[in-house]
Amino acid sequence: MITVLTIAYNQRLYTEMLLNSLSRPECANVPFELVCIDNGSTDKTEQLVVTYPLTKNPNFKNLTYFAFSENLGVAAAINKGFQLAQTDYIVQADNDVVFGPQSLSIMRAWMERYPLGMISPNWPWIQKKLGIRYFENPGDITPPKLKKLKKTGLKAKLEPFRATGSCWMCSQELFAKIGGWDTEYKNICASDDFLWKVSLSGAKRFIVPCPVYHPGKITRGKIPENSEQQEKDLRRFAEKWGGHPEDKSRLRELQRKAGVAPDPELPKTIWQRLFHW
Question: Which of 137, 107, 142, 109 is nearest to 122 (CA)?
Fold first, then answer.
């Protein structure tokens, strides 16, 4: 069994689309539990989650729902989710993710190959092919659209030395090794900080062909780019790491200092040939 962990902060419509996909045996096609952390929602998210008919999917085994009284940030929510998870492998998915056919079994297969690694579906590539409004409501999740998502997702590019912060899978062991997410961040830099810690641990990272759809920035994108919290997060990141989240040369420098082979700078075309799948 694996755990699907999702964090909800309002956006009830998107949470319902996530639940819709998990209720389908062809999408959530391995035994799984769902851990939902409600980060202070005010739109009756709890009523939706605890009453949703996930048992239509025989692979569904258990639901754990936990609600904070206020929004403590994505980092605190993810750490709590890992504490509550009952399995070794956890898929963290933003609540606006839609799992397509065979997605969970594909991600689990990659984790079994790299048990101390981190796996992400290549949703940015899929989003570019299908558009940001491919799924807009639960009624859009139809067999023809899922079939197209599967066909597109299996053609997505395999990209080593990368992972995303919106949908990813890792083990409890790796999560504990790097100390989870830094709760001093409230929004934008929390996932960047986590990904840098994974990189510095030497863990294998892959963005893989997998039919998972994500429109992007539905919940996290609600904070304005010029917000005070964003500035605080960026300052903390710079103080902690000595650079900006997009400064990959600084990350490679830190990897060398940590005795970890730095991420190579090779053209994507070369990686496509070396890692074609």
Answer: 107
Question: Structural domain of residue 74, as residue ranges?
Answer: 2-274
Distance CA 87, CA 61 (A): 12
Q: How far apart are CA 175 and CA 197, in angstroms?
A: 10
60 near 66, Cβ under 8 Å?
no
- In angstroms, the CA 185 to CA 245 distance is 13
Query: CA 23 to CA 145: how far, in whole Å?
Result: 16
Look at the chain and report how many structural domains it folds into.
1
| Angstrom distances, CA of residue 31 to CA of 26, 28, 248, 269 | 12, 8, 37, 37
Largest CA distance in the chain: 51
- Total residue count of the chain as it appears in this document: 277
| Average pLDDT, consecutive stretches of 10 residues, N- to C-terminus, the chain (277 residues) | 96 96 97 97 95 97 96 94 98 96 97 96 95 93 97 95 93 97 88 96 96 77 63 93 94 96 71 45
What CATH number does the domain containing 170 carry? 3.90.550.10
Residue showing tokens 């892959």: 206
Give exposure, 163-201, as e/b (b: 16+ Cβ within 10 Å): bbbbbbbbbbebbeebebbbbebbbbbbbbbbbbbbbbb
